[in-house]
Structure prediction request, 101 residues.
Amino acid sequence: MQTSIIIATLFAAIAVAAPAPEVESRQVPYVACSGLYGTSQCCATDVLGVADLDCANPPSVPTDADNFSAVCSAIGQRARCCVLPVLGQDLLCQTPVGVQA
Prediction:
């Protein structure tokens, strides 16, 4: 009887000492734009901070702020978060958090 208790305790100790899964796999994915300014766009021209011209969706899904900037820079545009995209023109846009202006 005592042998089975010792073996059960040994197995429990081994289970507790096992390494945890990688933390990276549990990370929340990058969300470039949220809330009212929820549309991520790559835009060429900013008009007085009110409207942006020649805008389009990023060619690939951004993985972080630097990647968002790089994806838009690769096509000659800037990363922006906008309120209302209409036919390549976007109203009320701002620079995403973490992206250098």
Q: What stands out?
A: The CA atoms of residues 73 and 79 lie 8 Å apart. The chain has a mean pLDDT of 82.
